[in-house]
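## retry 2 of 3
previous attempt timed out at serialization; input unchanged, resubmitting
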Amino acid sequence: MPSIRTLAAVAVNLLGELVAPSACVACDEPVGANVLFCPSCAASVERTDARAGHAASPPRWTAAFEYGGAIATAIARLKYQERSDLAPRLGRAMLTAAERARGAVDLAVPVPLHPRRLAERGYNQAALLAAPVARRLGIAFAPRALARLKDTPRQAALDREQRVVNVAGVFAARERSRLHGARVLLIDDVRTTGTTLARCADALHRAEVTSVHALVLARRG
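## retry succeeded, writing output
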């Protein structure tokens, strides 16, 4: 089951959407309903062509945006400025990319935070992004299927070689019976080198999932 704090964050997000006017997710300028960015911020945003990765960078993956500009600002606000209210709208922005996995996945699993980091932040941004994706695709949502065993330094601060070492042995399956035979959609906010996604996929395959396809809000580099 999701944690009480995660459920509370989801409830607050939904309530906020009902009572608050729409605002740009990067700068809070007023925007129309179902609009993510104001015109000024939108000019800095680039959607990807949503092509999947290949065997050279497993697991297969799809991204909604190129990392940079206003989408990078929105992600930073979501993760580091206590703006969990942005997650439902950013999650819905992933839906076009998510459609490419329709029919090929049946379980959405977010990349986990370590319990200490989760306690500090109050929510897992990947889980909040994953919830609207699971609803749209009509698949099960398993926010606790993976566990992060070590509180490692943030990947963004490391080079490629350090990233590989940093997440070695970090992830483990926690709901093995639920994962067995599942076709997993693994969800995170940003993909840079793909190391975190690959180590999560390793843990999922050890739990005998059938396949793993990753979906991220933005790809970096």
